[in-house]
Amino acid sequence: MMASRCAPSTGLFLPFLYPSLFRHKAARIPISRFTRSIAPLHTDSNISTTLYDATSSGSGPGSSGDSSGATTTAPDTTAPLTTDPSSSSADLPTSRLNPAPDDYAISTFADKARVTVHAGGGGHGCVSFLREMFLAEGPANGGDGGHGGSVYIQAVAHGETSLHRLARGRRSIRAGRGKSGMGDARGGARGDDLLIKVPVGTVVREVERQDPVADEVAAYHAARKQKREYDRLVQEAEEAAATKARAEAENAGVSGEGAVGSFNGRGSRRRADDKKRKIEDGDDGFISSTLAESEAAARAALGLTEDPDPPNLHKFILYPGMSPGERQNLSLPRYPRRERLLAQPEAPIRLDLTAPTARPILLAAGGLGGLGNPHFVSKERPRPLFATRGEGAVSVTLDFELKLLADVGLVGLPNAGKSTLLRALTRSRARVGNWAFTTLQPNIGTVVLDNHKGRPVVPPAPKPSSFRPSATTGPFAAIVNDASSPSRFGSVVMTGPDHHIVCGDGSLGSNDAGAGGGGPRTRFTVADIPGLIEGAHLDRGLGVAFLRHVERAGVLAFVVDLGAGDAIAALKALWAEVGLYARMREEEENEREIEDRIDWEGDGSNSGLGIGDGVVSTTGMDGFTSSMSRNGSGGGGGGRKLDIAAKPWFVVATKGDLPSAQDNYARLREYLDDVTAGREPHPSGVEDAWTDNCAAIPVSAIHGHGVDRIVHWVVGLLDQ
Ligand SMILES: Nc1nc2c(ncn2[C@@H]2O[C@H](COP(=O)(O)OP(=O)(O)OP(=O)(O)O)[C@@H](O)[C@H]2O)c(=O)[nH]1
Ligand SMILES: [Mg+2]
């Protein structure tokens, strides 16, 4: 038997021949090993611990404990607070209210967008004539062009929660252009209208606009002026030439008489007479030669190379098959004066859409379609070889700004527990993590008070005055003493499978969403924004820009972490930032008002938006200003109060389960009692700020304890 020529497979050359096989194999082994060895460095829990340590604004001394046992026990969110007073989020089992950092729903959110909206231009009119077998030159039958589409805006309460669709990518939005008319008297189709849907709470401001109709009018006036000037110069030149010729003829006659009898004299005399007669008779050849000269002189004077076009030529479409003679003899009629279908809103457009708009509001009106040639038939001009062009359309650059119109705005330092509270109040899946700036964009949730099943989920709220917490018998004591039952109000169970409170991420509430229609309030919305830090108004941290989302909330809830140092200091720091933000906004508004006053001076009509065709704006200019100075003292310059300080507010003293929370709460309570009684100034330092009933509601959001009190308190404040 012949020996194999190949050496028995030792595998020696295989890696060189098939490196991919080996790379694959080799890769597999270390990956799993690496995973095991490096995983602890990259897990979320590790990141959170690291960041927590760095920021040191966590939930107290117990929070940096070992999280290894986190998944061993089943979630017990109804556990009483007293079971383990030193528990921190890291020690607790994961649950809906203590989720892993990767358990959250990403929401695409944008609160600002700059977009140029273009209305559609009108389609052109058509030049056409009927032609049939025995009718070679029938009447004009060109169709009219279709009107261009318009752009509208509508604020909707449901379905839109953010401006991300406007902010994303596209910087311009176009309505449809009207189609041009066609032969056989077929009119062009209308351009499609465009409706921009925005969430309630959107403010729209015009930045710039281009109106081709206005440009056309200006171009027409310039062309007409030039044409007049040209005609004047031509006439002058002709008159000068005629006078000169007449003078020459006279001179020639005189010199001829002086040479009576000579042949030459007789000849020149005859020529001069001829010339004189021709001038007097308006002889064509002579006139045309002087006219051409005069026109050339006028063109030279105006710096033109050709005769100027009729001023309104650009508004007409000429029949392409026109002969040069027809072109020469073309006399265009006056451009017909026409009204736009919809009146373009006057500049500058400013809308504050604080309520759903029943009817769309016009932003940019579409252009008119051009007229077909039958419109220009007359006795003198039975076969018009022209039609009009479609009107150009307006384009407006607009700034959109969304100020969420939640009923309650949560304001707190980073890591205070705002998102956990939102999760406890609603079915929001806002991100929660034990580090600062977990929340990078606002979250909004809806608290449903009535599930429309005939039985209110939440019993009628007590009036805030009858529910005023006190240091001794207040809710904090209730939480501790009533630890076995999660709610003092019995019927509200904040956790568990039959959770009645839903998050309406897809249904943005408005200030009147709950009590809309005059009935009892059925829901309210809560906005959770990124944490504020000291100096946020100087753009530290994530800045104060997100405060715009709580600026118009009905009630402000200051979320203070009872386990993170002095709660009073935290509250004062928050109010200081809010106050500075309010002042900033007020200055901005004042500046804008002054700018507008200058803009609007020219036409003297500042009565709001000129929205035509019955489109009604729910809030125009007046609505805008009034919303900003709703609580102000009537716009009197420096005497204006801060709006935000005039809002009802309360403190949510969260993380009540942590040690030292009791003392901290007691001090906070005392301080707030003093503020209510007027012994202490308002924490923002603003005079006349709202201090009717400054409450601190202790909760442990992570356990879902005490959140029902917040629901009642808010309902009481909103219904005030
Ligand atoms: N012990 C305890 N921990 C809580 C409570 N509420 C929240 N936490 C923890 O506090 C940490 C921060 O919670 P978040 O809800 O993310 O805080 P936040 O205010 O939204 O933070 P930012 O979004 O960064 O501003 C998390 O680890 C929570 O588990 C509570 O009532 N008790
Ligand atoms: Mg958060």
Automatic annotation (TrEMBL):
Q: Which PROSITE patterns match?
A: G_OBG, OBG
The ranges of region (Disordered) come to 52-97, 247-285
Which parts of the sequence belong to the OBG-type G domain? 406-719
Give start and end of each Obg domain. Answer: 107-405
Q: Which GO terms describe its cellular component?
A: mitochondrion
MF (Gene Ontology): GTP binding; GTPase activity
Q: Name one Pfam family in it.
A: MMR_HSR1
Q: Where is the composition biased (Low complexity)?
A: 53-95
The annotated regions of Basic and acidic residues compositional bias extend over: 270-280
Q: Does the keyword Nucleotide-binding apply?
A: yes
Q: Which UniProt keywords apply?
A: GTP-binding, Nucleotide-binding
Q: Name one GO biological process term.
A: ribosome biogenesis
User: What name does UniProt use for this protein?
Assistant: GTPase of the mitochondrial inner membrane that associates with the large ribosomal subunit
Q: Which organism is it from?
A: Diatrype stigma
The organism's lineage? Answer: Eukaryota, Fungi, Dikarya, Ascomycota, Pezizomycotina
Chain's gene name? MTG2
